[in-house]
Amino acid sequence: MINHRSTLGRVTVLAATGLLALAAAAGCGKKETPATSGGTKTITLGFSQVGSESGWRSANTQSVKDAAAAAGINLKFSDAQQKQENQIQAIRDYISQKVDVISFSPVVTTGWDTVLKEAKAAKIPVILTDRQVDSDPSLYVSLVGSDFEAEGERAAHLLETVMKAPGAPAQANIAVLEGTTGSAPAIDRAKGFKKVMDASDPSWKIVVSQTGDFTRDGGKKVMEGFLQKYGVKGINLVFAHNDDMALGAIEALRADGRAGKVPVTGIDGIQLAVEAILAGEMAGTVSWDPFWQGGMGLSLGYHAKTGKFDPSKEPKEHREFYGRGVVVTADNAKEYYENNIKKTPSIDWNDLWGRVTGQIQYS
Ligand code: GYE
User: Fold this and answer.
1) Backbone phi, then psi, for 130, in 5-degree steps?
2) Planar angle of CA 56, 198, 247, nearest 5 degrees
3) Which end of the chain is more exposed for a tag (fewer CB within 10 A), N or C?
4) What pTM was estimated for this model as a whole?
């Protein structure tokens, strides 16, 4: 996943077309004037990114920038440093700059109705990538994301396997490193994990749970605090809402001489995490098609322009949907590394629904 640059070659072309088509679709409301007919109108896309908090995020940002550059799209890019007010301001700036398309990954789920209504009033289509909002879907064109609840469930099943292994501790004392408070991945990963926990061995206990804000440094600091408070015996399993926090926790455990002795699970499937699994310092991670997610968002636009995908005629499961998830453990880490990190997974971008595993659900 991290090795996006090389994988982006093919995607960029398609993505660029998709971006172009989407922007063109965005422009279609505007009557082509003789001045522009035959001339190529530079498409302006305003992208508000959550921040640069993790390996997954950096790869996501790189794919957007590469795709736009390849398509000659005028990309206005802003990094919100994980602050909602910065994203709302960025979107308002894009509206006043009359961009053709707005796309963003919402840092948290709530508080977007007003600015989304402003974009709609300005007739600028909005594409959500990666994370959900609790606003009405009529306020955005499409959303391609990950099934965060299923990721939480799979991380819990991963720990169940660890607990069944010979030499596993009798009692599970779990420490949880939560993602950004109020964000869709943190809310739903916690929900999925708890669902499996509640149905699992009643002796399992979440001893402590605190946000590390999806950063490596945050994961390390919070884990150091946990180790000080609960000592060696108090915590014997760690569930981190993303790989960067998991790697931070492993750093703290290493300083305590316990790296590889306390099973740590993460989510994202980033290169450094898979290398930590191969090195026996991490129990596993869950990845959810970030490569497909990035490109498919743009391909949807392309097909919307060419008429293969008309959002207004499609059922909800074709407007908001998930890709595929993979659980990576010591058993398949080598194969996963070969197929997803060292080389590009091959994806047919014209096959819009082939990899869809379901409609995004809202409880
Ligand atoms: O897991 C984490 C990033 O929204 C899926 O955000 C994304 C999450 C990802 O901070 O690394």
Assistant:
1) 75, -60
2) 25
3) C
4) 0.85
Q: Regarding predicted confidence, which is higher, 168 or 45?
A: 45
* 30 alpha carbon – ligand 1 mean position (Å): 36
Cβ atoms of residues 340 and 298 within 8 Å: no
Pocket lining for ligand 1, CB < 6 angstroms: 53-54, 56-57, 130-131, 146, 185, 214, 242, 244, 267-268
Segment among 12-16, 148-152, 239-243, 321-325 with least mean pLDDT: 12-16
CA of 306 to the centre of ligand 1 (A): 32
Ligand 1 center to residue 53 CA distance, Å? 8
Class of domain 148-287: alpha beta
Ligand 1 atom nearest to 53, measured from its CA: 10
Q: What is the dihedral angle through the alpha carbons of 311, 317, 321, 323, rounded to the nearest 10 degrees? A: -120
Residue 26 has a pLDDT of: 45
Sorted by where each begins, the domain ranges of the chain are 11-145+290-316, 148-287
Among protein residues, the one with the nearest Cα to ligand 1's atom 6 is 57
Ligand 1 centre and the CA of 244: distance in Å?
Answer: 9
Query: 246 C-alpha vs ligand 1 centroid, how far in Å?
Result: 13
Question: 11-145+290-316 and 148-287 share one CATH topology?
Answer: yes
- pLDDT tens-place string over residues 170-224: 889 999 999 999 999 999 999 999 999 999 887 889 999 999 999 999 999 999 9
Where does 11-145+290-316 sit in CATH, by number? 3.40.50.2300
d(CA 314, CA 362): 18
320 touches 137 (CB < 8 A):
yes
Closest residue by Cα to atom 8, ligand 1, is: 185
Separation of CA 320 and ligand 1 centre (Å): 18
62, 100, 348 from 15: Cα distances, Å = 13, 16, 12
> Which one of 144, 242, 289, 291 would you pick to mutate in the ligand 1 pocket, going by the greatest count of ligand atoms within 8 A of its CB?
242
Q: Give per-residue pLDDT as tens, 45-103.
A: 999 999 999 999 998 998 889 888 888 899 999 999 999 999 999 999 999 999 999 99
